[in-house]
Amino acid sequence: MNYFKSSGFFCLFFVFIFWFFNIFLAIFIPDSQVITILIYLGLIVVSLAYLTLCRKDIPKTLRLHKVNLWSVFLILILSVVVRPLTGFFSLLGNMFFQDLVSSSITQEVSSGLMIVLVSTALFPGIVEELIFRGIIYSDMRKANPIKGILLSSLFFGIAHMNFLQFCYAFVLGIILGVLLEAADSLFAPMLLHAAFNGTSLILTYLMTLFPSISDAATTGTDIHLTTLIAFLPSAIISLILTVLLIAAIAHLNGRLGYMKTWFSSRIRKTWPKEKAASISYFAAVGICFFFAVFTELLASIA
């Protein structure tokens, strides 16, 4: 029963249930947006059923606490401020990996923005945070929050199952995990995640209205490297502002003193000597990794 309650089991379970929903629904439903929404609804039901079967206190486990109004305001600012930082890692990944998502998202957005905002911003913001920061991280942080944030973010990134998305999703996952601790509420990363995805979709939609802007993008390695170097100062500024905003949110919620203890070696020595990850966790990461390799190879052949 202890294994069933572990984050490693749930990671492995998530991979299989996600693909089951994908394959099963694709047989009967042709609309990819409807499939995406139904997958997320299914994941909500399965996740809550899992917590119930584990006899978890759902509000306590998921940290469903109120977020004060000033924190909401700062989180919305953060969703914009963090973009140059994640964009830098996206550009870095673009130097080595295929872009397997942008063209399909552009096509979907051009056919209808509202349904895509629901399926690709609202539902991921709620459901992915419930799973990755709610269920998985809440178990991993028992060892210590730093390991928990890094490991849950690693799985969050590779669970996108393509390497380009991993490059920025891993970084975003760290920010979402730290924000959860700063606000002590799962609603905080849910809001940031939904707002981040939403602004990405709106920017993509605007690009479809002005195709000359997207035509200006180039794909050469040298140009990518030049762009990367040019983008570095804004990424550093973005990182500094991100840290300051999260610190302000932590201060508003009385969590700043607690988070400062993470940097004390004396305090860290008192943390439990528990393992944050298991073989099942690494098996789940490995499955996602090999699928990402497979899709990358297919894309390069095509």
UniProtKB/TrEMBL annotation:
GO terms for biological process: CAAX-box protein maturation. This is CPBP family intramembrane metalloprotease. Pfam families: Rce1-like. GO terms for molecular function: endopeptidase activity; metallopeptidase activity. It comes from the Bacteria. The chain crosses the membrane at residues 7-29, 35-55, 67-92, 112-132, 153-180, 186-207, 228-252, 279-299. PANTHER family: CAAX AMINO TERMINAL PROTEASE FAMILY PROTEIN, SLR1288 PROTEIN. Residues 112-198 form the CAAX prenyl protease 2/Lysostaphin resistance protein A-like domain. InterPro entries: CAAX_protease, Rce1/LyrA-like_dom. Keywords: Hydrolase, Membrane, Metalloprotease, Protease, Transmembrane, Transmembrane helix.
